[in-house]
Amino acid sequence: MLATRNPITDSEAPPVLNVSAYKFVALDDLPALRERIAQRCNALQLRGTVLLASEGINLFLAGGSASVRAMVAELRADARFADLTPKESWSAAPPFRRMKVKIKREIITLNRPQIRPASSHRAPAVAPETLKRWLGAGQDDEGRPVVMLDTRNAFERDLGGFDACVDFRIHRFSDFAPAVEAQAERFAGHTVVTYCTGGIRCEKAALLMQEAGFERVYQLDGGILKYFEQVGAAHYTGGCFVFDAREVLDASLSPTSSPSATALDELATNS
């Protein structure tokens, strides 16, 4: 049997595939959906967290590559999740202790119920390759002035971020709305690109900023993890915190240290 290859390094991959994905879409069958997803994840011996709310799904799964991809395929068989686009990384061991499927009020908590992202209602997104050109100063780069706004928590920013980015030193994402509303004048006339780990926080952050009157607001499509996957560490210093036992990933999407025994999977429900 051929060894699984890591698509990022083209070397033999560790045995555990990790995926994260989200989709803002109206869901009205939450208890039945929760039961179906929990049963299949457990049958496939997966670990991780799946959050469900009336606004959509947010998932983190880890396990054997065949099992993880089988679960993603089953989700995509539901028309509501047909375009689910997971981000992949690899680890030597599962970074979650157990499998949890939870129903929540929001899949990412902003505490602004009027902000409802959906496929037909989202702020403009900028692809990683395009952002790299915007931020660069090389012959093939555009070098346009951009304010990079980190929507993550302060401790996440301290572990790594885009060069010369702005952050509000928040402790949880629900603190972002009052922070940005209090500092709207700071960004007047600027092009702002919001970013976060995997893109979900920016979906709401960018829409919130549009509602607050910001004229040129983009979100980094796929977040830091997709940026690392597609363009590496260009214009980014440090690592990216992830809410599991791997803790911090470098630009090759590899843990910067061995997985700890800390139950960081609990944090995935409060990010």
Q: How many domains is the backbone divided into?
A: 2
- Average per-residue pLDDT, rounded, comes to 88
Helix content: 25-40%
Low-confidence parts, pLDDT < 50 over ≥5 residues? 1-10, 258-271
Describe the overall structure.
The protein has 271 residues and is α/β, with parallel strands linked by helices. It has two domains: 5-107, Alpha-Beta Plaits (2-Layer Sandwich); 125-238, 3-Layer(aba) Sandwich (Oxidized Rhodanese, domain 1), CATH 3.40.250. The chain is 25% helix and 24% strand. The protein has helices at residues 30-43, 65-76, 128-135, 154-159, 176-182, 200-211, 223-231; strands at residues 5-6, 11-12, 16-24, 47-53, 56-63, 87-91, 99-103, 125-126, 147-150, 160-162, 166-167, 192-195, 217-220, 236-238, 240-241, 248-249. The strands form five sheets. It has a five-stranded mixed sheet. The radius of gyration is 18 Å and the shape is globular.
Q: What secondary-structure arrangement, pairings included, does this model have?
A:
Blueprint: E1 5-6, E2 11-12, E3 16-24, H1 30-43, E4 47-53, E5 56-63, H2 65-76, E6 87-91, E7 99-103, E8 125-126, H3 128-135, E9 147-150, H4 154-159, E10 160-162, E11 166-167, H5 176-182, E12 192-195, H6 200-211, E13 217-220, H7 223-231, E14 236-238, E15 240-241, E16 248-249
